[in-house]
Design brief:
Blueprint: E1 5-7, H1 16-22, E2 27-32, H2 40-53, E3 58-61, E4 63-65, E5 68-69, H3 90-107, E6 112-113, H4 137-154, E7 159-163, H5 184-188, H6 192-198, E8 204-207, H7 224-234, E9 240-241, H8 257-267, E10 272-274, H9 278-290, H10 316-324
Parallel strand pairs: 1-2, 1-10, 2-3, 3-6, 7-8, 8-9
Antiparallel strand pairs: 4-5
Helix pairs in contact: 3-4, 3-10, 4-6, 8-9
Length: about 325
């Protein structure tokens, strides 16, 4: 049995308060941000310290490429995924990029990156944009599928996001509540396809803080229709469901931090993320300690294959993957 709360820490090392929080059985993991990361040796030491508190804690990070890349100093600057289409052999470069990302992250003692982004780039969303592999489902499936093969070859589980698709809305769910007015039929024949067709490669899926009013008046991450009726039953997805950050503005429709956490879990999420707001995380934790919330039982698939070598960039495939990326820009 594991807890249902994944939270963050404030700096590059654990404080006594951090250790106390991480010891609580309702906490299942830690997500790292740029403020937690200086260089490879420091990240390894931080991850070791986290596992010393509790060996079963998951450690995750957002290491997509382009502008969403937490590990920078001492790591390869990954391209934005939308740039891969410009490569002479895009599927090969996508696979090597997935391997390289996963290899470097695993070498730090981090279990997984919240990747890949499976949203379609309609040219409307500034928050998605070149984070997407492409403008149509076929391109996203092809290139994200190759990226996933690379991740898996390195030993990393994957998390596809943002179900059922964040690319149509113009609002940024970090600071607003996006509304997608399209029909279920439209979404099913476009945005939903990468999630549906790649699901066997996805250890986890993260739903969007987007409201699709023709389907439900709640954001997808709080919607039993999306998570249970469609994702679990119709698509028969069996993996782990992670909420997107419950501190984001798009989640505030569900109430305070505790209400957001319970709404996500009751809708079908296995893990709720609460980041960049320690008071909110503590409030949600206190509620989980008093409420009868069933612990998550299927997180074992999210543990990465740790690479116990400090010279991780000397591996022959690292050299080959680095060479494959040289023709691409690292910025979006």
């Amino acid at each position: 049995m594991q807890g249902s709360l994944m939270l963050d820490i404030g700096g590059t090392y654990l404080t006594a308060e951090d250790r106390h929080l991480l010891r609580q059985p309702q906490v299942c993991g830690v997500i790292l941000f740029a403020r937690n990361i200086e260089h490879p040796q420091q990240v390894r030491e931080l991850c070791r310290a986290i596992r010393k508190v509790r060996s079963d804690l998951l450690i995750g990070v957002d290491q997509e490429g382009g502008r969403v890349q937490r590990l920078r100093q001492g790591f390869v600057a990954l391209p934005a995924m939308g740039m891969l289409q410009t490569a002479p052999n895009p599927t090969h470069v996508a696979q090597e990029c997935g391997w390289l990302m996963a290899w470097e992250v695993l070498a730090m003692g981090i279990d997984f990156s919240f990747a890949p982004v499976l949203d379609l780039d309609y040219g409307r969303s500034t928050v998605i944009g070149l984070r997407s592999f492409g403008a149509n489902a076929e391109t996203v499936e092809l290139l994200a599928g190759a990226f996933l093969k690379g991740m898996h070859a390195a030993g990393m589980p994957s998390v596809g996001k943002h179900f059922p698709g964040h690319g149509w809305v113009t609002a940024d769910s970090h600071i607003a509540i996006p509304v997608d007015e399209r029909s279920l039929a439209y979404i099913q024949r476009a945005d939903l396809l990468p999630f549906q067709n790649l699901q066997r490669y996805l250890a986890g899926i993260m739903p969007a803080h987007v409201i699709y009013p023709q389907i439900d008046n709640r954001p997808a991450g709080f919607s039993k229709i999306w998570l249970q009726d469609i994702l679990r039953q119709q698509l028969n997805y069996q993996g782990v469901l992670f909420s997107d950050d419950l501190s984001m503005a798009g989640a505030h429709v569900a109430g305070d931090a505790a209400q957001r956490m319970l709404a996500a879990l009751n809708a079908g999420c296995d893990v709720g993320l609460l980041c960049n707001d320690r008071a909110a995380a503590e409030h949600a934790l206190a509620t989980l300690q008093t409420e009868q919330v069933k612990p998550c039982t299927n997180l074992s698939a999210m543990y990465g294959r740790y690479i116990a070598q400090h010279d991780f960039q000397q591996h022959p495939r690292w050299q080959a993957a680095r060479q494959a990326l040289k023709t691409l820009t690292s910025n979006d």
